[in-house]
């Protein structure tokens, strides 16, 4: 056992950092009412070397960068509950987390970006070629490659083997939000990182390979294509585009929830059968910029939203909950933190699959009018109790 140094965060959450057997960082975030002690078990596993940092290739037709991370082929795929790699370690389960925890965050064993940023600091493995800034990434050319510097982290919402963010208590949700804010600040400070993206994939229909309640945080060495289009829209309209969108939606028929600090709505041009956006009422670039009051309100509001989505049908709804944040070094005063939750579920027993028009051409056809979707979601949310 080792006693880990406490670092107090907001809302009474306490952070304790340590290392796994192969050197990956592991961070515990303790609930304000935790029953856990400061002592945590040491990871004594005999682990092999970490995979080499992946490389990425540029698609010269679009300018997009594609990370080729072959080590991800070896990641766990729907293991039985007794071998859950995100549960606390036991004598029969040599999992990734050595101690019982409230919320735990650790570096992904098979990352898409990373596992280290050594290439960006000059202490790079032979042959590494980190991106040389945004101008370098924007240049086009055949056969261009760069090292996939960055970092990917797993965020475990609970030690329980089943569930999702929406099944957590308000207190636990608040702890996760504090963890998102802490990690956003820390990852944004790493050399070479251009954007930080917290998200949750839920359901096998989305491609989830672990049923344990968890999300992830990707730290990219570039600004993602989605965000580049967003920044272009801001440039072509107005710096306060997000505020204009918020006021437009608040005055319309698609609002689902509205608090003192947050509004959730079905967007005017929703692509998916279930699509929900939520944003803060003031400009905030990322989780680290939220006030305590904004974080406090988000916890129950977000839980109501997720439980409302599940109340639409008699079974759990698959979704991707994507928290878009401003890039680390540009557009901090114009790109606003916001949630985009999407689900392909268009009926109790039907999913929307991306066919030719959407998948090949990026030309979307909506199956459900956004106003109809908002009406059904509001009715489902009204029945939710926390």
TrEMBL record:
Residues 252-379 form the Galactose-1-phosphate uridyl transferase C-terminal domain. Its EC number is 2.7.7.12. GO terms for molecular function: UDP-glucose:hexose-1-phosphate uridylyltransferase activity; zinc ion binding. Gene3D superfamilies: HIT-like. It is an enzyme of class 2 (transferase). One of its GO terms (cellular component) is cytoplasm. Its cofactor is Zn(2+). It catalyses: alpha-D-galactose 1-phosphate + UDP-alpha-D-glucose = alpha-D-glucose 1-phosphate + UDP-alpha-D-galactose. Pathway: Carbohydrate metabolism; galactose metabolism. This is Galactose-1-phosphate uridylyltransferase.
